[in-house]
Amino acid sequence: MRERANAFYEDVRTRRTVRHFSERPVPREVVEACILAAGTAPNGANLQPWHFVAVSDPETKRAIRVAAEAEEAEFYGGRAPDEWLEALAPLGTDASKPFLEIAPWLVAVFAESWHPEPDGSRRKNYYVTESVGIATGILVTAFHQAGLATLTHTPSPMRFLNEVLGRPDHERAFLLLVVGFPAEGAEVPDITKKPLSEIATFV
Ligand code: IYR
């Protein structure tokens, strides 16, 4: 048990969010298996309030990039408070998002706050944000475990994803996961994680 817990930590601690992707393809079967893993997440009343849209079609990726960059241009050009921009400055991000076209897969994660029944009524879902957050964590970890890099991308607002991907109004875009291999020479920020003593208390 100790060995497995430590081995998992040693593996998962090597995961890094990447912003420079290679065009190298990733088989659809790998994406399918990772989404199936995400779908095992604990969730409210087992109502599984999520939908994953896996995009490899170049035209669709381009449409997502164009819409995301328009939102980001507004974000960086004035909508974001100075405090937020200062917090982002060490990451060196800006409104340009070429990875949305370069990476072989984008996985848009949608959260469903209610579900339409065949009779037209609405079935409420529970703990939607918690459930979809846990599923997304498993998805990120599954891709890492498969040897792939991801970027958890949250162009804000993300309503355009419903339009581009044809998802109904009762689904809310939760985040956009960029998936692929890192570009050759891709760099990541020099950051550290908090020690156990800071993130945990044992009583
Ligand atoms: N969505 C923007 C801004 C952004 C926000 C946070 I918080 C980050 O950790 C990184 C970026 C963008 O993708 O550039």
Verbal overview:
By secondary structure, this protein is an alpha+beta fold. 41% of the residues lie in helices and 17% in strands. The protein is built from 8 helices and 6 strands, in the order ααβαααβββαβαβα. The protein has helices at residues 2-12, 28-38, 58-79, 82-88, 99-102, 128-145, 160-165, 196-199, and strands spanning 50-55, 105-112, 114-116, 122-124, 149-153, 171-180. The strands form 2 sheets. It has a 4-stranded antiparallel β-sheet with strand order 1-2-6-5. It has a two-stranded antiparallel sheet with strand order 3-4. Strand 3 (114-116) and strand 4 (122-124) form a beta hairpin. Helix 2 runs antiparallel to helix 6. The longest helix is centred in the middle third of the chain and has 22 residues, at 58-79. It is globular and about 50 Å long. The two termini are 22 Å apart. The mean pLDDT is 96. 3-iodo-tyrosine (IYR) binds at residues 72, 75, 88, 91, 93, 153-156. 3-iodo-tyrosine binds at residues 72, 75, 88, 91, 93, 153-156.
| Mean pLDDT figure | 96
Bound molecules: 3-iodo-tyrosine
3D shape = globular
N- to C-terminal distance: 22 Å
Q: How much β-strand is present in the residues?
A: 15-25%
Q: Determine the fraction of residues in helical runs and give it as a percent range.
A: 40-55%
Tell how many strands the DSSP assignment holds: 6
Largest sheet: 4 strands, antiparallel
Uncertain stretches: none
For the largest beta sheet, what order do the strands appear in spatially? Answer: 1-2-6-5
The whole-angstrom Rg is 18 Å
Structural class, by secondary structure, is: alpha+beta
Q: Could you state the order of secondary-structure elements as H and E?
A: HHEHHHEEEHEHEH
